[in-house]
Design brief:
The complex is a heterodimer of chains A (about 280) and B (about 120). With about 280 residues, chain A is an alpha/beta fold. Chain A folds into two domains: about 210 residues, P-loop containing nucleotide triphosphate hydrolases (Rossmann fold), CATH 3.40.50.300; about 45 residues, Alpha-Beta Plaits. Helices cover about 35% and strands about 30% of the residues of chain A. In chain A, the strands form two sheets. A nine-stranded mixed beta sheet of chain A has the order 3-6-7-2-8-1-9-10-11, sandwiched between helices. Chain A has a two-stranded antiparallel sheet with strand order 4-5. In chain A, α1 crosses α11. The longest helix of chain A is centred in the C-terminal third of the chain and has 18 residues. Chain A is elongated. The relative contact order of chain A is 0.20. Chain B has one domain: Nucleotidyltransferase, domain 5 (2-Layer Sandwich), CATH 3.30.420.130. Chain B is globular and about 35 Å long. The chains are: A alpha/beta (about 280), B alpha/beta (about 120). The interface between A and B is medium-sized, with 11 and 16 residues.
Chain lengths: ~280, ~120
């Protein structure tokens, strides 16, 4: 089973929820931090024995001896990563999405692919929770291939928890697609509601069942709850606004570490998600 | 010689667009006939990335041998160089003024990009 933890708005508590879910099912779970532009689960779980591997995407390399400067490769490329002015093609690897199209359309077979590193995957054990996180290289724009590489670590039998990036961009879509359920974490504010609606729209297109966790209940207003009720969206859990939790967070402590009673709360959340998945 | 000037409008009295890749239009001026016409740079304006490269392809296809613009970044400069198109940076005022400053010798082709990528 794969459970994605997503939100529209950033800073609503995705990582808090993802880490807590992983902790209550420790021993049979893998947590994938797919927020590759700013992975932060490791700050709370502090993995041991971290191993690192480089992730790259295939980019073209041109064999000048075979190239006839026909320009077909440049005509094909939508991203201006390869361009020919009736000359041997110019390459802009940082624009390449790694689709391989230029190689396929080259009538001379003059293009082959070489790997260009875009980031790393780091994995380590955190007391029964196996953490796998992607870390995109600074300045790199192309995150989805790295998210895909992280998701390849989803476990075959156990439970995979995916910590998704905020928003509804390509990276978020890549993180939540092919998951069995999405836990949307929001806050009861107008911003939280607005961005929740966007995320709900995206997940509905992907036809993935989902429910909502409202965090920091007590701030804002009741419109998130009204929205969920009117849309028949399951309200999975409400977490009260608690300064104690925020202070613990600022020290890199998990919510279960700060409030031990939360262990059973999140265990219930997991069982609820599990049953929602079976009903879907 | 055909000159492509980056412009904010479609006539020779339009202001020069300081951007190359995402310029609104290219005003093509033929120094032999003194005739001009404008071409919209929709592909460059709408490109998610590589707008300068796209614009270099456009002016190359239009037969320009020289580009007059405000600024030119490194990718665009490399592409224009490969296409055999010289580039003049630092132009301002109207298209007509920019062309006369170039023909009068006040503006010279650049030997390198004059700005970083995504400067505006």
């Amino acid at each position: 089973m794969r459970i994605a933890v997503a939100s529209g708005k950033g800073g609503t508590g995705k990582t808090t929820v993802a880490v807590a879910l992983a902790q209550v099912i420790a021993g049979r779970t893998r947590l994938l931090d797919c927020d590759v532009e700013a992975p932060n689960c490791h700050l709370f779980l502090r993995p041991n024995g971290v191993e690192t591997e480089t992730v790259g995407i295939p980019v073209p390399q041109v064999d000048a001896a075979k190239c006839t400067a026909c320009g077909d490769c440049g005509q094909f490329c939508e991203f201006n990563a390869i361009v020919s002015f009736k000359t041997e093609p110019l390459l802009f690897p940082e624009l390449c999405h790694g689709c391989g199209g230029c190689m396929k359309v080259c009538p001379e077979g003059a293009i082959r692919e070489v790997d260009r590193p875009i980031g790393v995957i780091e994995h380590g054990d955190c007391g029964g929770v196996e953490l796998v996180q992607g870390r995109l290289n600074v300045g790199e724009a192309l995150a989805p291939p790295l998210v895909r590489a992280v998701k390849a670590y989803a476990c075959a039998n156990g439970v995979t928890i995916v910590d998704s990036p905020a928003g509804t961009s390509c990276t978020m879509i890549e993180a939540v697609r092919e998951c069995d359920y999405v836990v949307m974490v929001t806050e009861p504010t107008p911003f939280g509601l607005r961005d929740l609606k966007l995320a709900v729209g995206a997940v509905r297109v992907l036809r993935i069942p989902f429910g909502v966790v409202v965090n920091r209940v007590g701030i804002g207003d009741g419109r998130v709850n009204e929205y969920c009720h009117s849309q028949n969206i399951p309200l999975l859990l409400e977490i009260a606004d608690d300064r104690h939790i925020a202070e613990a967070y600022s020290r890199g402590e998990t919510i279960i570490g700060a409030v031990p009673a939360m262990r059973s709360t999140f265990a219930q959340l997991f069982h609820r998600v599990e049953s929602e998945c079976h009903h879907a | 010689m055909k000159i492509a000037v980056t412009a904010q409008g479609v006539t020779p009295d339009s202001p020069v667009d300081p951007r190359f890749g995402r310029a609104a239009t290219f005003v093509l001026f033929d120094t032999e006939t003194s005739e001009s016409h404008a071409v919209h740079n929709d592909q460059g304006v709408n490109a998610s990335g590589g707008a300068g490269i796209q614009a270099a392809e456009t002016v190359s296809r239009l037969g320009a041998e020289l580009v007059i613009t405000g600024h030119c970044g490194p990718k665009a400069f490399r592409a224009l160089e490969a296409a055999g198109i010289k580039v003049v940076v630092g132009a301002a005022g109207t298209v007509t003024e920019a062309i006369s400053r170039f023909t009068g010798g006040a503006l010279q082709p650049a030997s390198a990009a004059d700005t970083d990528e995504h400067w505006s």
